[in-house]
Amino acid sequence: MRRIGEWSTRAVQWLAMLALAAMMAHLCADIAMRNLVGRPLDGTLEVVAELYMPFVAFGALAATHLRGEEIRVDLIAYLVPAASLPWVGRAGQVLMVASAGAMAWLTGGHAVRAFEIGERIEAGGVVIAAWPGKVMVVVGFTLLALAALMRLFEGTDDGSV
User: Fold this and answer.
1) Phi, psi at residue 122, to the nearest 5°?
2) Strand (E) positions, the chain?
């Protein structure tokens, strides 16, 4: 299971890196057009917000959590005895599995609906499909739930949830 989780998060990370590179190139072209020609590229804001950003933001969630590199708040760790910290960590992972799974389920309905109706965003002369970004949100939450499940069964948490 660990191998599947690592492979899938690595694949999604590559998608996130490609989206980041494409976003950088798109924004550079937009700035260059604005400064050289006096007219920006049509739909840059919409393409960045609806297409690139979901891939960049949600593509790294699972890998970050799988490696234990997420931002942590140690409020509970200071209030409970040290012997109970592994249980606090497990409870945090159960909560993460439940919340990420619920978010994947809820956003999944929106992604399916966007795909079924062919939802698109029109900005100037640019028309883009809205569903790829929405699908990426679902994939990101699903992989985050899988990463939390893997950490739960590995028992590697120290309770700083």
Assistant:
1) -115, 125
2) 120-123, 126-129
Please work out, in degrees rounded to the nearest 5, the angle formed at the alpha carbon of residue 38 by the alpha carbons of 36 and 39: 115
User: Phi and psi dihedrals of 121, rounded to 5?
Assistant: -115, 130
Across the strands, what pairs with 128? 121
Going from N- to C-terminal start, the domains of the chain cover 2-154
For 133-146, the pLDDT digits (tens) are 999 999 999 999 99
Place of tokens 């399916």: 112
Give the position of tokens 């994947």.
Answer: 104
Could you give the CA distance from residue 154 to residue 161 in angstroms, rounded to a whole number?
A: 16
Tell me the C-alpha distance between 43 and 4, whole Å. Answer: 37
pTM of the model: 0.84
Q: Which of 153, 154, 115 is nearest to 133 (CA)?
A: 115
Torsion of CA 109, 111, 145, 106, to 10 degrees: -30
Give tens-digit pLDDT for 34-46. Answer: 999 999 999 899 9
Q: What are phi and psi of 120, to 5 degrees?
A: -145, 160
Asked if residue 140 lies in contact with residue 59, where contact means CB atoms within 8 angstroms, the answer is yes
Q: Judge contact between 29 and 50, C-beta under 8 A.
A: no
